[in-house]
Description:
This protein is an alpha/beta fold. It folds into three domains: 8-84 and 102-174 and 299-369, FAD/NAD(P)-binding domain (3-Layer(bba) Sandwich), CATH 3.50.50; 182-296, FAD/NAD(P)-binding domain (3-Layer(bba) Sandwich), CATH 3.50.50.60; 380-490, 2-Layer Sandwich (Enolase-like, domain 1), CATH 3.30.390.30. The chain has 14 helices and 20 strands. The strands form five sheets. The protein has a five-stranded mixed β-barrel with strand order 1-2-3-4-5. Strands 16-17-20-19-18 form a five-stranded antiparallel beta sheet, sandwiched between helices. A hairpin with a 4-residue loop joins strand 10 and strand 11. The longest helix has 18 residues, at 73-90.
Amino acid sequence: MTLLQNNEHDDRLQKLVGPRDWQSPQPHRLYDLVVIGGGTAGLVSAAIAAGLGAKTALIESDLMGGDCLNYGCVPSKALLAVSHRLRYLREAAEYGMPASSGEVDFAKIMQRLRKLRADIAHHDSAQRFTDLGLDVFMGQGEFLNEDTVHVISDDGGLRALQFKRCVVATGAHPASLHIEGIDTVAPMTNRDIFNLEKLPKRLTVIGAGPIGVEMAQAFARFGSKVSMIALDNQVLPREDAEAAQVVNQALQEDGIELFLGAQISKFVAGDSSKQIHFELNGQSHVVDADEILLATGRAPNIDELDLAKAGISFDKVGVKVNDKLRTSNPRVYAAGDVIGDFQFTHAADAMARIVIRNAFFFGNSKLSDLVVPWATYCDPELAHVGLHLGDSEKAMCELDVLRFDFKDIDRNLLEGETTGFVKVVVEKESNVVRGATIVGNHAGDLIGEMTLAIQNKMKLSDFSGIIHAYPTTASIFSRLGDKASGSRLTPLVAKLLKKIISWRR
């Protein structure tokens, strides 16, 4: 990753998570665990192993903290925090406060981002993990054979680390596009967009996934003229179509021009702009941009590892693992974005714990047992966990869905946050919760309650008896519980209850 030069906050970040003067130690004769990659999966597995007394080595080739700290969750959410507040400022008149245009100081926004990132970085610093008892090596790791990793340091040094067990946790990087002219327009990815110092007047986002949607909305609210071009026919294509449409509407209200279902034919570098040529509905279109953001998915960081020398199977998706996260080399495990599944920070953390249990304690923890929620932090937020209504075959039972709108929740009415809804997918016969989609304010926080329900095989009707503080948005789950309880009354039972009540009068 390239950081800004002579920036006090990026300099501080560099010193913490990628110190240029780092002195890698002399390797131990044999390590209980060697971890390749200093992102979430690598740091968590290494820290736990060292805490258990295992002789542990950690190898990082770039910046510790990985994608999340440096060019993912942390900087993007710093920008989104500003963009959300801009909406409140622009709606102030509706609440009896002075109206505001919400004009921004982009340079100050980015400086705040860099400061916050550096403030958080000490948690992932090379020195902190050394203090935990690890041997930290800054350099490129590559397999020499089935039980040895070479570390090639920036100073040209070469060290061999022999291991009993190893974890590959090298993460992923932005996927590129093989389209004519793309190199001539020098598109940005999430790895360099946070280095911007000047707000682009025109920004075109390629891709409609979480990164694309979040950045498109943020920059539109900052004042950029934003276009989004995507092959998919909806924004957030892996999400519930109705929920995604709510986000689609919000993006349009923010002035974003959407071209969904498009096919890009070429990029052209002009004298004063960058052009994207594409086909949509049988017609040719051209969009001019000052900057282009590629948000077209991710590819695993495996090219430099020499996996074949260790007998580790892989493909374009990532390192191949079984349900216990073990690779084709029984000494080696893989976790996090490098395996292709559930590319989220919290999922990487959970995978790391599976690896430690299985590698050191003869565990039987399985990736398939994880209940992994996710959220896109646009405005409104969209979060999901578990199954969709159409997953009956996967569930091996018939599914049903219950819905409740935020416009019918008092707290949301009072705060003016009435957009969105909750959909809960249940087993039709048992009423057990199997999935949920939430689109609306604080959806990312609310999805945790449904994750807990799935994890513990709770019935949606159980929520009827759970007391939520009034007024809170979370009370929507009690309302859904009431709805579920009522829906499960058969005509016969309803008739009997009516008679009992009448008799007791």
